[in-house]
Amino acid sequence: MQHSSRYEVNTLRRFMEQAFTACGVSEADGQIVVDNLLYAELRGIKSHGVSRFPVYLRRIQMGAVNPQPQISMEQRTPVLLKVDGDNGLGSVVMVHALNRGMELAEQLGICAVGIKGSNHCGASGYYCELAAEQGLVSIVLTDGPPATPPWGGRKAYFGTNPMAFGLPRAQKPHIIVDLATSLAARGKVIRAAAQGEKIPEGWALDREGLPTTDPQAALAGVLLPMAGAKGYALSLVVEHLAGVLVGAGFGKDVAWQYSEGNKPANVGHFIILVKADAFMEMADYHKRTEQFVEEIKKIPLAPGTKEIKLPGERSWEQQQNTEAQGIILDADLQAALQTIAQELTINLG
Predict the structure, then answer these.
(1) Which of 52, 74, 110, 224 lies at a C-alpha separation of 20 to 30 Å from 20?
(2) Which Gene Ontology molecular function entries are recorded, alphabetically (predicted)?
(3) pLDDT tens for residues 283-301?
(4) Domain CATH number, residue 43
């Protein structure tokens, strides 16, 4: 019987990059996708980490994702960038769009990027991290296939519609907020189903609109929005900005990557980038940000709390540990990677 195993980060990196190349993805684009997957894995966001690699690869092999997209960009105004991802891998589309958006924001102080023709793009906080490294405040919104209902409904219409925000600091860790507008990311439910685990009460409803802790029933039913009607309102806004506004799919027109068939997903993204020194000198921005952080961390602690953490800080700390100790893959995921290795005649290590 196969058990969980630990792998060096670079071993998994090389394997996934080779697999993407074997499926027609350029070396540079493969590195982008793998970097995004490992960012999530190292930070403990396993729902968006290496577990997503097999389905990304399968979608390429099915003809559902274009491994060599001709990404087009149109500068509609000095600060508005329109991007068509040509059905490329989501993180590839996002990074190419983000890089051009950051150039414009650096020149003009701000840039809004609207993206259509994309796919699942992994952890949205990754893009905020890249922007923060360049001294840019960022907002990243993404729609997705139907997963949550409008408040009061029992049929899915909105995606889990993540929102991410990046607030740069002079030194790492930057402040990174990355959250789904559903009570839990669908990737966590998928992972629970794969491992035969139950999900917490309150996460989902089954097909009949009844509460369930069965992840399979949840996937067949609906996930619930965070914060009730407030989460529904936020999800609606994300769906509009990242779907309706930018010309991408929305509602039932966004395809789920785990479904059969090769229908393009047409996921949409909306990015806003602002220079951190847009309103003051960078030194002043950093000084005020560190004062802000210090004041937050000095708030008296609630009983049982040892330290106040900033959003993304625990994940950043976990990344430092995992990079040194290696990545643990459960038996099912390890078996899936071994199958890919055999099919593509490459070595998992």
Answers:
(1) 74
(2) oxidoreductase activity
(3) 999 999 999 999 999 999 9
(4) 3.30.1370.60
Tokens of 130: 């890249």
Burial (CB < 10 A; 0-12, 13-18, 19+), residue 275, is buried
Residue 12, in any domain of the structure:
yes
Answer yes or no: is 120 within a domain.
yes
What domain range includes position 256? 5-182+225-280+319-344
- φ, ψ of residue 289 to 5 degrees: the values are -65, -45
Contacts of 298 (CB under 8 A, 6+ apart): none
| Within a domain: 306 | no
Under the banding of pLDDT at 50, 70 and 90, the label for residue 191 is confident
Q: Distance between CA 95 and CA 327 in Å, rounded?
A: 24
Query: Which pTM was predicted?
Result: 0.94
For the chain, the domain total comes to 1
| Closest among 329, 349, 323, 337 to 5, alpha carbons compared | 329
Amino acid identity of residue 301, one-letter, is L
Q: Is there a domain that residue 289 lies in?
A: no
